Automatic annotation (TrEMBL):
Residue ranges occupied by any LUD domain in the UniProt entry: 47-212
Organism in which the protein naturally occurs: Streptomyces siamensis
Official protein name in the record: LUD domain-containing protein
Coiled coil ranges: none
Domain of life: Bacteria
């Protein structure tokens, strides 16, 4: 008898007295979880998102749709960026006010090549106010996961209020589980046993979030 037989035998013995009329698994445990903590207006939800993003040391900016190209151009210039990775489905108008060299998101691009790129500009799939989290799902305007993990400077555009939800359960309801989901809460950071914070270890050192739209 091998280990597999031992394990399966234990499983069979554990299930021996389980009747076919037992409560189905998905109904066996009460799951009436809160989908939102408190009641907030749309404006309050957006304010909470901005507050929590800033608490995670993301840099938050606001503008309307017409002002977005100018804000992106200004942030790239302020960062001193000479190149920027661009997802294939990103709205071309977003980069209309900058002449920074654009690098396409290509499958054959190596991590070393991406590491030489100064910035990346993407949209997002959803933004969660209660946790200050941006979720990317690899959509056309977000590109491959690696383009938001290797460059040191990430500019992420959030459409307000359409892409903003209050809670994680509300966010999950908008996401497809088979997609490559990347959850971002602030710039990449870690700390050692003495709590010395180090940024940029496994992602961008600088995260800038632009909230676009009026509430």
């Amino acid at each position: 008898m091998n280990s597999r037989d031992v394990i399966l035998g234990r499983v069979r013995r554990a299930l021996a007295d389980t009747g076919h009329d037992d409560t189905p698994y998905d109904q066996a445990v009460e799951r009436s979880y809160l989908r939102e903590h408190g009641e907030r207006s749309v404006a309050e939800t957006v304010e909470l998102l901005a507050e929590n993003l800033a608490d995670y040391r993301a840099l938050v900016h606001r503008c309307d749709a017409d002002g977005l190209p100018g804000v992106i151009a200004g942030l790239l210039a302020e960062h001193g960026s000479a190149s920027v990775v661009v997802p294939p489905g990103l709205d071309e108008a977003w980069l209309a006010d900058t002449d920074v060299t654009r690098v396409a998101d290509r499958a054959e691009t190596t991590p070393h090549e991406l590491d030489r790129v100064d910035s990346v500009v993407t949209a997002c799939a959803v933004a969660i106010a209660e946790t200050g989290t941006l979720v990317l799902d690899g959509g056309p305007d977000q590109g491959r996961r690696r383009i938001t993990l290797v460059p040191d400077h990430h500019i992420c555009v959030v459409r307000v209020p359409d892409q903003v939800v209050s809670s994680v359960p509300q966010g999950l309801a908008r996401l497809a589980p088979e997609r490559p989901l990347t959850w971002i809460s602030g710039p990449s950071a870690t700390s050692d046993i003495e709590l010395d914070r180090v940024e940029g270890v496994h992602g961008p050192r600088t995260l800038e979030v632009i909230l676009v739209g009026a509430v």
